[in-house]
Amino acid sequence: MNPPLALTVAGSDxxxxxxxxxxxxxxxxxxxxxxxxxxxxTAQNSRGVQGVWELPVEAVRAQFRAVVxxxxxxxxxxxxxxxxxxxxxVAELLASVEAPVVVDPVGVSKHGDPLLAEAALDSVRTxxxxxxxxxxxxxxxxxxxxxxxVEDESGMRRAAEAILAYGPRWALIKGxxxxxxxxxxxxxxxxxxxxxxxxxxxxxxxxxxGTGCTLASAVxxxxxxxxxxxxxxxxxxxxxTGAIAAGFALGSGIGPVDHGWQTR
Length: 264
Prior knowledge:
This protein is of the alpha/beta class. The protein has helices at residues 19-29, 57-70, 84-94, 121-128, 139-146, 153-164, 211-224, 229-245; strands at 5-13, 33-45, 48-54, 75-78, 101-103, 134-135, 170-174, 184-190, 195-201. A nine-stranded mixed β-sheet has the order 3-2-1-4-5-6-7-8-9, with helices on both faces. α7 runs antiparallel to α8. Pathway: Cofactor biosynthesis; thiamine diphosphate biosynthesis; 4-amino-2-methyl-5-diphosphomethylpyrimidine from 5-amino-1-(5-phospho-D-ribosyl)imidazole: step 3/3.
């Protein structure tokens, strides 16, 4: 049997820890055939992002059509889209597919480097998020998109309501950046009716580069397999928790999560 098919539409991380590199490793680890549309190229390592070069809209559109029109997709994941023209182009392309879409509204890198132009935020709100089956913002991205500063679990519920107001079917609010010294990390998945609070151990490991990309790709992998959203998110949370626990040093800065932890 052929494996399920998932497509990542994202930027390239030359250090291999995040972006399309993390997405494709995640998909492979979870038994899914990963395909890619590169939106931007970054010069990036364990210390941060040294440069970003967007691809032309025509190149993004051609990659997407080449994959979808010939091979097909069973789930799509979006990551770094960089600019308003790229966001709007990708949103237009997503409207042409029936597959579920996971939107990771990437705003900044793990090192704090900007990966989304300020001028693109309105396009994310009005064009991209309405196309999402699941949106997966972290707390910094919640603030960037909604203005809300989240400091506790009740704030996560308000954040989910604000994100859902932009149109995604489900919001997965990632609570890894909640202030305080907690033994567990909590995420909230909700469609405005159902609530799923997902808890996992918090590991004392600074090597967490690529966490957001990995989680979103794992959710897309589950959806490509035909799982319902809550089950796909639950399995993705388990996978990324193991990857964080096994994160390793690389270079002189922040190392990546280990996408192959299940095989070691």
